[in-house]
TrEMBL record:
MF-aspect GO terms: monoacylglycerol lipase activity
Residue span(s) of domain AB hydrolase-1: 48-274
GO CC terms of this entry: membrane
A single GO BP: acylglycerol catabolic process
Record carries keyword Hydrolase: yes
Naturally occurring in which organism (per UniProt): Nocardioides luti
Annotated SUPFAM superfamilies: alpha/beta-Hydrolases
Alphabetized InterPro entries for the sequence: AB_hydrolase_1 (IPR000073), AB_hydrolase_fold (IPR029058), AB_hydrolase_sf (IPR050266)
Protein name (record): Alpha/beta fold hydrolase
Keywords for the protein's UniProt record, in alphabetical order: Hydrolase
Length: 302
């Protein structure tokens, strides 16, 4: 009789594309804390930069590892672990505002130029806020599997209100044993060989505690960018996941239509397309990023 193994089940049931995992390091953001960053050079020293922001419950690498090499043929590619995720900053509280400020601090710390910010799901919301809070630091946006708010239906309102109440009493535990154990687990993550991609993915996934995910989801429930989307004044592309059961595709398309000049790059894929349908997602992502970069250069020449 075989013993149930989550690892064996993952290998049998979940397709994980193999791609080289770039090395990274802890980077200190002045006055904010340290986070794990990968910095993959582009084809030229003056290549534009794309900063990749990950989905909730993931890490920078877990969301984006299939896309890094294809993007690096045209861009300098930077990933970071966001607050309370992976090896990200362990702060007293979690807020989307702080996450956006962390991105701006990373841009300053690394001296990044010609910056496009791309985000997936939660990362796309933080990308919106980076423009809102630091419009002078970025020149383009790529929003993937995105939304402008989470309380658009009665069911969503009930879920997020319940989550907010449930998490309210635990906000003070960010320095608890849970958070410390999470940080220590994350620090053990290693660059593994191609035969170990599932093990590596499980380590990355387990480096963020369910408690931290709950706090992040509660914060996401308070997001509402609709009133200012039409003021976004940098080239923007929206990658729409047409089979998304988490963030409705119609809402994603509506966001693109509210942002002046935004292009739509739709794919026949679900919410986890960044990894589980990478063969479909990555070409659309590259197309979106190249489109934004071309428009960015045109604006500079105008």
């Amino acid at each position: 009789m075989s013993v149930f193994s989550p690892r064996a089940l993952l290998r049998r049931q979940v397709y994980m594309p193999w791609a080289a995992i770039p090395p990274g390091e802890m980077v200190e953001l002045a006055g904010r804390g340290s986070t794990y960053v990968t910095d993959t050079p582009g084809p030229h020293p003056d290549s534009p930069t794309i900063v990749l922001l990950h989905a909730v419950g993931c890490t920078g690498l877990l969301t984006w590892y299939p896309a890094i090499k294809p993007l690096s043929r045209r861009f300098r590619v930077v990933t970071m672990d966001q607050r309370w995720h992976g090896r990200g900053i362990q702060s007293e509280e979690f807020s989307l505002r702080d996450c956006a400020d962390d991105v701006a601090a990373l841009i300053d710390t690394l001296g990044l130029r010609d910056v496009i910010v791309a985000g997936y799901s939660m990362g796309s919301i933080i990308a919106q806020r980076v423009w809102r809070q630091h419009p002078d630091k970025i020149e383009g946006l790529v929003l993937c599997a995105t939304t402008d708010r989470f309380r658009s239906t009665g069911l969503e309102r009930a879920f997020h209100q319940g989550m907010e109440v449930a998490m309210l009493g635990t906000r003070g535990f960010s320095r608890s044993r849970i958070a410390v154990r999470t940080a220590r687990t994350a620090a053990k993550a290693l660059d593994l060989g191609p035969s170990d991609i599932h093990d590596w993915a499980m380590r990355e996934f387990n480096s963020t505690s369910p408690w931290a995910v709950g706090q992040a989801v509660a914060a996401l429930g308070r997001h509402h960018s609709r009133p200012w989307l039409d003021r976004i004044d940098v080239p923007t592309a929206v990658v729409v996941t047409l089979r998304d059961k988490v963030l409705p595709p119609d809402n994603q398309i509506a966001i693109a239509r509210r942002i002046p000049g935004a292009t739509i790059h739709d794919i026949d894929a679900g919410h986890a397309a960044c990894v589980l349908q990478a063969e479909t997602f990555v070409p659309a992502l590259v197309e979106a990023a190249v489109t934004v970069n071309a428009r960015r250069r045109d604006l500079r020449r105008a």
